[in-house]
Amino acid sequence: MPRTAVVIGASMAGMLAAAALARSADTVDEVIVLERDELPDEPRPRKGLPQGRHAHILLPSGRDAIEEIVPGGGVRKRLLAAGATERGLTSGLVTLGPQGWYRRSRHHESHPLLVASRDLIDWTVRDAVLTSTTRISIRRASAAGLLGTAERVTGVRIGGGEGAVGNEDLRAEFVVDASGRGTRIEHWLSELGITDIPKDVVDAGLVYASRLYRTPEGAEAFPPAQVTADPGGGRPGRSGLLLPIEGGRWLVSLGGTRGGEPTADPDDFVRFAHGLRHPIVAELITGAEPLSDVVLSRSTRNERRYFEKTARWPEGLIALGDAVATYNPVYGQGMSVAALGARALSGELDRTGILAPGFARRVQRAAAKVVDAAWMMSVGQDQWFPDVRGKSPTLADRWLSAYTGRMARVATGSYRVSTAMCEVTTLQADALHLLRPSLLLSTLLGPVLPPLAGPPLTPEERAVLSSLSGGH
């Protein structure tokens, strides 16, 4: 009798979890992915990705995890061939942080970011996974509950599929919930008698507004530019990010926390960008040709479920990706955390099988460690914006915020400190990396170089900006 695994959701986390399970030939014979959306056969938007039309980046940690889970899939090469770009975090981005402009390093880049539309990234990963094995199938259906008990999950109750009448019980040896921000796993677990899942929420009320532009002639090589929000300014946080994506387009995402939100009004888009702490994004797009309407997203709150802390956890079930934790998308961590969670599953599969006692709990704890650094960075900033809702800062949060704020100031004038922060930002090192004695000393001593008065542009980039802004 075939051994079946079921994955709920064809998200990044879901497809990579399916790939990890399919590679484990000694444990699983088939993997069924349940997805309620009709999946496009090319890079196009779909309803189940509420943030799909906003800016996305794939961190080097996420890229490496994908390449490991889908060996031979060539995801990076396929993305680059399709028009994605690779930009160094410390050399290829123009960034105004809360404490000033970051200098651009001329040294070897160890933090390359893959920049493309979410549609292209999702489709490329899904296609690479499905062409790498014949043991994964996608079924259009919605999960309606879990089968089994608090000791072991034995499958999924499904409904809503094409041609389906009522619910259907789908038996499985293993279930992965990768259904994203809209997961109902807490409700499903409560039906099995597990009700002690701790949860934190930090909601700054962020609203994202995004719009596509045609890349102006002569600006094809202009780097990504971002103006970040200042969580310590006592005012609503406003930010802007311009990313060059495939198809000769700029994807521009503007964000504002509670009390400073952008609107869907096209006439307000450039005005909002002009109101940021520096007008570089507005100057770049003022004369650019819009290719889309303004799209809003309010699915931005930080929410974490501590599944690893429950007194009981059933065998045969894990949650990954946004089903575990969601973050303010401005930090660009979601896809990479999903990939790292799937790699944690893959690593445990290499050691034992899904039927080994305690397997699911070990994977869930490993996935929680992946979440820690991303959660700390996102919440560590969002909890300081005005009118934030949810978890209040602790004394430790206040100390850490003061320390990282000081470190961010030093990083604007120290490549060494900037690189160390990038290790954590890109999820290549955990937060304890920032507490090494040498970094503590560098942070205490202060910046090596004076602050920059404006964006760190090359003469060629400065000329492009001047031409687009009318010389202002």
UniProtKB/TrEMBL annotation:
InterPro entries: FAD/NAD-bd_sf
Protein name: Pyridine nucleotide-disulfide oxidoreductase
Signal peptide as annotated in the record: 1-22
Assigned keywords, A-Z: Signal
